[in-house]
Input
Amino acid sequence: MRMRLQRDIEKLKKRIVRLSTLVEERFHMSVKAIECRNASLAAKVINGDIEIDQEEVDIEEECLKILALHQPVADHLRYIVAVLKMNNDLERIGDLAVNIAQRAETISEHYGCQIPFDYFTMAQRTGEMLEKCLDSLVNMDLTLAYEVCAEDDDVDFMKNMMQNQFAQEVRKNPENTESLIDLFLISRHLERIADHATNIAEDVIYMITGEIHRHRGGDYVKDKKIRSLEGFSLSLDNDINS
Amino acid sequence: MGKRTHLFGRLFPPFVILIALSLAAVFWYATVVVENLSREQSTENLTNQAAVLSRLFQGRLSRENAAELDAALKRVNHRIHVRLTIALPTGEALADSIEAVANVTSLASRPEIQEAAAGNVGRAVRRSLASDKDLLFVAMPIKEGAAVTAIVRAAGPMENTQFILRNHRWEIAGIAVVLFLSAALFCFLIARGLSQSLEEVRLGIESLGEGRLDTRLPRPHVEELATLTSTFNRAAGALQSKVMIITQERNELEVVLSSMTEAVVVLDTNERLLSVNQAAENLLGIENERVKGRTVQEAVRNTDLHRFVTNTLAGKEPIEGDIVFMGEPERFLQAHGAALQDTRGHNIGALVVLNDVTRLKTLENIRRDFVANVSHELKTPITSIKGFLETLREGAMDDPEHAKRFLEIIMKHTDRLDSIIEDLLSLSRIERDAEKGEIALDSGSVGDVIELAAANCRRRAQLREIEIKTTLEPDLVTRVNPQLLEQALINLVDNAVKYSDREKTVEIEAKKLAAEIIIKVKDKGCGISKEHLSRIFERFYRVDKARSRNVGGTGLGLSIVKHIVNAHGGRVAVDSSPNKGSVFSIYLPLPVAVSEVRSAQ
Output
């Protein structure tokens, strides 16, 4: 019986990692669609979302099946519960990737000129967070998970910076407001993705330590955060000056 | 199942007990025999004495002679340690060698006397009332005819035998202890020797099991053990040679696998990685040691690969597929998968061979785009020329004002065609010369070349009020072809000027690094989107098709730059972000000797 449970959990692990891979790829594709203003890539992301949705449902059913059949306890139970939760987050990230791809479609239609915001640093940062939190899931790496939690604030900070930039840009070119809103939404989506990545990291922390890490405020690795923020604003300054 | 004991424990204590028991038995038996023997001897002695006495006093044994007999007996008393008594068959004592006859109570109740009275020789052992010692009594009847007339009794102490035994008890015990100890020691040595030999065999097997295949055992003197150890040694030798063969085969296989340029991944039926070769480690960015035993999903995050592995494991036929790795740079892999089957045809795993076809794919794209682009580039001016010529022929020729304008347009397009072909020719010339090694490289100052190129471009730059700044380190000397390098730099700086807005600056920097000289051309123009960066040095590749043709240019400038720099043994790079400008870098290698001198300094 124990063996069966172990095997089912292994299977579940495989599935959740596969889903996370899928989601990560979709995220990269959507960012790339923005970068290259590639509508066909965006369409691919949008059409592929059903696959993620299906996988999410399957994983949830699998979890419920294990819960009902084996009534796991201790770390097994934690694992299942955490998988249930991150399953949700992953699906949401997939949806957000779709949203970004939809923006990419609009942009490729209407917005021939350059993108006035520096999304790519933010997208890169979000991508790194996503990668780290998935790595922490695969390797059960607590340090990586904590790092992700700490990095979330950076992305939030970037989003706020972008919000300011957006306000300035709207004031300068009020006639472009509509396209600018499109662009601004991307930063919001990215920020949401980073939030979900943080949730996943927190689930990983829960999985490993059994400790619920949510709503702790930003007391962890505070000086590290500030340092990286300084780096970011510096690089922004450079970008503006150059 | 009884409790397990050591062989030593099995052998030694039973032997010791056995020895102790046998010694005790022998001791006991000897005691009994000696006792019996001495009793018999005493009995015989007494019997003899009684017989001698009876013979001596033959015929005088009657109540009448009692006093005489008594006196005679008392006389011999101090000579022999035997009490002699003469009695009548009724038990009445006639004479006694020790006691006064009067004191001797009737002997009729004594068993030996009763026996003698019946006509036989009577014997009895009894505790003497007088001396508190065991005494042996022998009574001999003296017969006249069939009737017993008197009885002669001799009594001697039994003490003799016990005395002997008591005296020698410690000696005997000592000998027994010595015997026991030496036997026990002997047993101990034998048992220990045996169990040590077995222990050696055990240790040998253990060390063999731990992988020390050169373990051999010494030959013990016991035949069975010798057979055992020699069998062991033979088995170990066979095992060693087998393992050596297997190791060698595995090493060969590993060498083959690791020297393959194709990535090879072996998986079991649960999609766990069993082994990956060096190429796969590099290609997939994984480490064999870390991913061994993990599922492919955990090891590599790529859905294409996951699907491919699942499909390979599902079928029995080998399959092929394409795998795309997102990310920077994007990579295309061609995958071949085959299910591994055991002798009964069951799937036991899968073998996936991955081939990096990114380069092929890129080349294919370049080729396809090149053909399309070159026809487009050549076709555009020719269409215009043809159109205007037709217009001229159909009457515009007679309208001098229009005709002149048309001719100028035709001239412009012809110039353009000319410059395209000129560029193509110089490109092919550079390529050909570089291939043949006919490009002359001489030691020269890179700084001078940069200044020349900058001066050359300044005129055009001034038209758009663009400043060209040069920041050069002194003493930038390497092997260059000045004409070609100048052409490359002019192309770069021209581009920078073309794509910059009015009143901006274009900077040229040159620095010496450890083993190369780096020349950077920076502009603050519109920049280039990421997706174009990798392809911008291709022939006729255009970022923005409409715009670049307006600002002039053949679409070959950067390609020429790349070829010139390649001919110098260097490389080009570009870094750009939209709206912030671009940086084109040329890396020229320093001559080996110079760089060595520098590092020595």
About this structure: The radius of gyration of chain A is 19 Å. The interface with chain B takes residues 10, 13-14, 17-18, 20-22, 24-25, 28-29, 32, 35-36, 38, 114-116, 118, 120, 134, 138-139, 239, 242 of chain A (CB under 8 Å). Residues 219-242 of chain A have pLDDT under 50 and may be disordered.
